[in-house]
Amino acid sequence: MTPNFAGLFHALLPEAALVLGALVALAIDLAFGRGRTDAERMQLSAVIGTFALFLAVYHTLAAGVSGPVFGGVLTIDPLAMATRLGVLVLAELTLVISSGSARPRNPAEYVAVLLFATTGFLVMAAAQQLLLAFLALELASLSLYVLAGFDKTRPECAEAALKYFLLGGMSAAFLLFGFSLLYGLTGSIELPIIARQLSAQPLTPLLVVALVMVMVAFGFKAAAAPFHLWAPDVYQGAPPTSAALIASASKLAGFTLFARLLWSGFGAAAGSIAQSYVLPGWLPVVAAVSLASLLIGNFGALAQTNVRRLLAYSAIAHAGAMLLGLMAARRAGMGPLFYYAATYGLATVGAFGVIATVAQTGPCERITDLAGLHRRSPLLALCLFVFVLSLAGIPPLAGFFGKFNVFAAALQINGLGGYIGWLTILAILLSAVGLYYYLIVLKQAIVAPPAKEAPPISVSPETAVALILTAALLIVLGLFPSVILRLFAVTP
Amino acid sequence: MNALPCTIYVSFAGAVLAWLAGLRSAAAARWVALITALTGFGLALHAGAGFTPRAGLQDLVNVPWIAEIGVRYHLAADGISLTLVVLTGLAATAGILFSWNIEQRVGEFFALYLALIGGVYGVFLSADAFVLFVFYEIAIVPKYFLIANWGSTNREYGAMKLVLYSFVGSALVLAGILWAYAAGGGQGFGLGELAAAATHFDHAQQVGMFALVFLGFGILAGLFPFHTWAPTGHVAAPTAASMLLAGVVMKLGAYGCLRVAMALFPAGLAFWQTTIATLAIIGIIYAGLVALVQEDFKFVIGYSSVSHMGFVLLGLAAANARAVGGAVLQMFSHGVVAGLLFAVVGRMVYDRTHTRRLADLRAMPLHRLLPFAALTFVLAGMASMGMPGFSGFPAELTILIGAWKASPLWTLFAAVGILVAAAFTLRVMQLSFFGTTDRSAPHSAPHSIHVLPPITWAERAGALLLIGATVYVGLKPDVLLDWITPALQSPVMQAVFGGAR
């Protein structure tokens, strides 16, 4: 390994921009924030944060696809680059929506922690070495724990943060244990070497234990059943904008990280479920997790009366579908999975953005709190219409093509000749269940009359722009999915 | 011909414009909607005038769309699609005329209505399974909001039931199409390509794919026993939406059965033919008998739609050129006649009397209070019964003759259905419009002497449009059959008819 520090520096410029932005935001707030209102401080910090994020986007684009960096610690392949851009866009949308709707008590800290989390996501997107992957994951997770508990005035917010932290800490322990076993088995923490070593090894019990440990952490990050129990409580208790980041950018980065670990690191131990018998490996485990998530997510959502918990269960169901995309990635590449995760993230950020805005003027907990949104704010109702229908997978919105592409990729493995085919058919049929609970939400927002005392909702201009932009992106990406898919055309 | 795709774009543009116009004034939204629908109808008629019937689909647009998975934006038309596009234009225009009295959230109503119409045009013109599916789903969601927001009896339940049935159907279709795409090697979704690939599928695959796709579309076509969404949905819907649902949306299902399920998987059709015919005949007779005992005026029409769509499915199942041609003609005929019936029930009668219970209507001398409605209903009822001179007659006759070729038994049972249809139509006509003939009765019953608002110009125009269409096609079915018959000579269709018995 020849250390090439210049290359490493170039590859990490986006991360550097974010960290610097966070520090500048903190410093300026410290120096000039005294005596100003929270709203002004939030706006100033958001402007700095936006500047940092744009700088990061610029450096990501300028660096381009450069392949392995610093002897393969990082890799800037199309997937890494696409994930970085996706994460940055999602973080920017979250930031703008929070600056317009949420008024946290420590605005500069909020923005700084958000930027640190994004830094973690960026490294996760490119990490190709177990140690770096773990560090990036921890940086992102610790920031998210803080964000989840940021609203110190509400006890349920503290509950959400504590639950998230305890379960997250446990999953990190599992992951570290799994990694250490893998290191013991293969003698390396570099994914390419691990891949080479594993292809020469049988599936020993110790390897199985290591893989299951990694899967536990993955299931936690993806909010997939049976590791989903934190999700409803955190989505419900955390500030909506923090929940938006947890549900969108964090998920996208997590799927990229684990897809890379599983396929380019442990691909040899994948096993198979393409036939009507099972070859042992991690694929059958992923399939089981996917099945459980699809069932628990879709049927659990039916019983919800709280709109945030409903979104959490729908997130679990979506995680199940994304796992299908992960399983199909060997044959179809990362395109379908990435498209799904990115567009799902957009729709979720938008939905939580609407909730955050509604929550400013009144409670936005129960689904019925959305009643009469079309009269209280036609703009929010229209945006929510787009976001929820995209989550439901209705064309021409991006959510539809995401599902379509993932299902097509999964069925192409072996038609209905194996378990994965049947799992796909189940996922297709369960999307009808999904439409039911999404329509319940839209029924309140668009059909039901507003409650008598419900005031009109004023939407701040920056939030309005962010929401309209998100909705427009969902429509444009849905009509022209090639914009994203083209990035992955060259990768195997 | 080449202007046909514009029907889609005009409708979607009109939807946006109607929404924007509705923010200013209700009247503007109405006129935008009417002009949009008329433009679509005009484009369809213009295309029909310049149409040269030929075997096979004639390309309209064919450009790459999503190259990564082989999707092409491919629109094409033949006589069958053209017939249904004309029907859509007609039904859309009439529907807007009959919803002229909508007062609440007018812009949004017409925006959703036109979005639905745009999706329907798109389905009828698609030659790529992906494109067809996209338009098909676009047509589903507006229905929920149209019914849940502007509907009547039990509207939220009816809307949800209808949309979930449609969506389960579309999920089955998606599963079938994706399976065929995967089995065909993932080359593309063009209907022609898929049909070519399907010739290499083994028998079990064809049978399975056909079952998924046909059942999925069949649910929307009112296939027994999955028809139960139709009566509740039709009854809950506002008049214009019932007209569209019965008039064109159920045709989407039947069209999908023909264009996708049958054309792609002929071997599957041969396997399932008898089952489908049996279900269709059960649907014809069962729905007819249920219609015979309904106490709600609109439910009678709702069940009659299921019964009439049974004839379409029977014609498709018979799988010969005559029966399928008759089925397409019946789609057109039923689209017009059902629209007319729902218009009378929902707009002319219910909006004035605020009751649909036959017992209440019986107490009113409606034939004297609303003579125009009575006349319209008698004409529509005759068309619905299949009297000569109306479009229902050549359509059902052609189906029965075609079905005889497949199996005389089918014709026999289906003919019983025609008798049942006559029975329930005459019963409801008698009870609703000609209940009280005693001249002294209305004056003694105070609740029935109120003066009903007169029939408006919009209603007259809409009714005349639809009556004109059914009479014209009834007297001269060749206008449509000349388009339809050559379309059935295409190699794809010949393979379908060759595979079946």
The neighbouring-strand order within the major sheet of chain A is 1-2
Biggest sheet, spatial arrangement of strands of chain B: 1-2
Task: Determine the N-to-C terminus distance of chain B.
Answer: 35 Å
How much helix, percentage-wise, in residues of chain A?
A: over 70%
- Residue share in β-strands of chain B: under 5%
Q: What integer value in Å does the Rg of chain B equal?
A: 22 Å
Average pLDDT level of chain A:
90
Structural class of the helix and strand makeup of chain A?
mainly alpha
Total strands of chain B: the figure is 2
Main interface by residue count:
A-B, 34 and 33 residues
Estimate the helix proportion of chain B, in percent. over 70%
Determine the structural class of chain B based on helices, strands and strand pairing: mainly alpha
- Topology order of chain B in helix (H) and strand (E) letters: HHEEHHHHHHHHHHHHHHHHHHHHH
Number of strands of chain A: 2
The rounded Rg of chain A comes to 22 Å
What does this protein structure show overall?
- The complex is a heterodimer of chains A (about 500) and B (about 500).
- With about 500 residues, chain A is mainly alpha-helical.
- In chain A, strands 1-2 form a two-stranded antiparallel ribbon.
- In chain A, helix 7 runs antiparallel to helix 9.
- The radius of gyration of chain A is 22 Å and the shape is globular.
- Chain B is mainly alpha-helical and about 500 residues long.
- Chain B is about 75% helix and about 5% strand.
- Chain B contains 23 helices and two strands.
- In chain B, strands 1-2 form a two-stranded antiparallel ribbon.
- In chain B, strand 1 and strand 2 form a beta hairpin.
- The longest helix of chain B is centred in the C-terminal third of the chain and has 33 residues.
- Chain B is globular, with a radius of gyration of 22 Å.
- Chains A and B meet through helix 19 and helix 20 of A and helix 5, helix 6 and helix 7 of B.
